[in-house]
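Help: why these numbers?

___
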Amino acid sequence: MPTSPTPTAVRLLKAASASADGVLPVTASPKVLRALLADGYMYQRDSDGYRLSVEDALTARTGTLVITLEGRRAILSTPQLYALSRHVEPSGRLAPNVTWQTAKSLAALGLVEYRDANGATRTNDGDTGVSGAVHYPFRTDLGGQVAELAAVGPAPTGARPLIAAVPGTSADAPERRNA
């Protein structure tokens, strides 16, 4: 069963989640890296796109570290998780009772996006401090995947972690082990 991530691990997972392709943009200590990989919060792929085992990822020193859906789920607070999984209208719009702080933090993680009245994506809620929000938060496809994962509950021990939809990768990427 995965452990709760440490504050350092949470910082790294948030950095990866905020990155457009889910890639960890900074380096991590071997101890933190081992925990992130062993708990299924991240995986490492090599230059051929193969997913490395935890042991191989720790010895490879090359390749790309990518956050998993479990990693994205692990960094969410209870209000953030509820906003994604319970407080969503059928259109995907977050319910009005979701605070602007929660919506903004989910947008920073790539799990929510703001849209205007015409459905065009916007970078923020458009609040100028005078008029109030004019763009509204909608759950992204990735946010929906994290919400579905939360609804199912934790993965059984030994289950292969789900991989977020990342350009150029596949959830079915074969695992490579060095012989």
